[in-house]
Amino acid sequence: MTHMRRRLDRSLGRAAALVALVLSMVVTTPVTAHAVVAPADGYGFAQGYTWATGDPDDARREIAAVGRTGASWVRLPLDWSVVEPHSGRYDWGYFDNLVKTADSQGLRALGLIYNTPLWARGEGARLLFPSAPPRDPADFAAFAAAAAKRYAGRINAWEIWNEPNLPLFMGFVQDKAVRFTEMLQAVHPAIKAANPKATVIAAGLSPLLGDDSPPGFLAQMYAAGARGSFDAAAAHPYVFPGGLAADSDNGWSDVLRMNEVMVANGDAGKKIWLTEMGASTNDTPEGVSQQEQARQIVDVLGAAAAVGWTGPAFIHAVRDLDTANRDDREANFGALLTSDWQPKYAATVLARQ
């Protein structure tokens, strides 16, 4: 017990030291392009489901806006339920277009594989949720392998699922971490066989308090046998509304704790990708100004650069869904553009130099 307590004290001490280092870098002056310090692996942008189900012309314009920043990555959503609505019959059209557009802007692509088609879902209430895990993880692995083979050389990084620590994004199933680990155990070897150069990233975990917090959920994954079934972990370090110093909802400190969990489980050499980050410029108590949004983005990028063990960081999102809807948090995450294509403050801060 004493030995375990000493190990815990050392771990907490390292985490506290990292927090102090990061907070010393919080931007307190007006944010400018010269203030942007990114992780060694760079930064990028994500937009979400609209790139899978929305207007393709809008997606092209949004990715072009990313190309005018200092970003080197874009996170592209590969919706299994859209591409394979019937078993064994693929329609890659929209995703082909996204990959082509990213290529045209000189951007590297992270593919996000998510959502289960109706034919592959389980029985009962889970049929209502495309976010439910597949009934048979082998079906998911077969789809992921087909994608990895098709886009090998153009996409060499695949993120598996999105925020499985939230009940909604695992179809409200029990034992979320166990079910997600089963998916990883099936998909990791399948992708590696299709593209040995691919990096398989376990889904980005959402800020959340309690047992399913990012470090808590990751620990559950290890307990379920996840070690060896992913090449990198991922987190979504949103720190709004208070910002990095306030560490709202443990948004950043939980990333540090995830690293401690990985070290304790023999994965010290693996990175944590930050596959979503940012803030919403809405008028609710959770909203921030455009200037504060830019500040929080710059602060989290700098924090990631300071620790040295993160992968690329992805800003969510490129463009607002509905800027006029001031009471909708989810509609106002755009960092570069309003919904009517006007530039936001962060577009200047992040502009390519």
Structural class: alpha/beta
User: What gap, in angstroms, lies between the N and C termini?
Assistant: 54 Å
**How many β-strand runs?**
8
Radius of gyration: 19 Å
Binned strand content: 5-15%
Residue share in helices? 25-40%
Helices and strands, in order, run as HEHHEHHEHEHEHEHEHEH
Biggest β-sheet strands, sense, barrel: 8 strands, parallel, barrel
Query: Might you state the CATH topology name?
Result: TIM Barrel
- CATH-scheme architecture: Alpha-Beta Barrel
Uncertain stretches:
1-13
Number of helices: 11
How is this structure best described in words?
Pfam families: Cellulase. Keywords: Glycosidase, Hydrolase, Signal. Residues 57-309 form the Glycoside hydrolase family domain. It comes from Mycolicibacterium diernhoferi. This protein is α/β, with parallel strands linked by helices and 353 residues long. It has helices at 2-23, 50-53, 56-67, 80-83, 93-104, 137-150, 176-194, 214-223, 253-264, 290-307, 345-349, and strands at residues 43-46, 73-79, 108-114, 157-162, 199-205, 232-235, 272-277, 310-316. It has one domain (2-349): TIM Barrel. It contains 11 helices and 8 strands. It has an 8-stranded parallel β-barrel with strand order 1-2-3-4-5-6-7-8, surrounded by 4 helices. Helix 6 packs parallel to helix 7. Residues 1-13 have low confidence and may be disordered.
Short structural description:
The chain is 37% helix and 14% strand. With 353 residues, the chain is of the alpha/beta class. The protein has a single domain (2-349), classed as TIM Barrel.
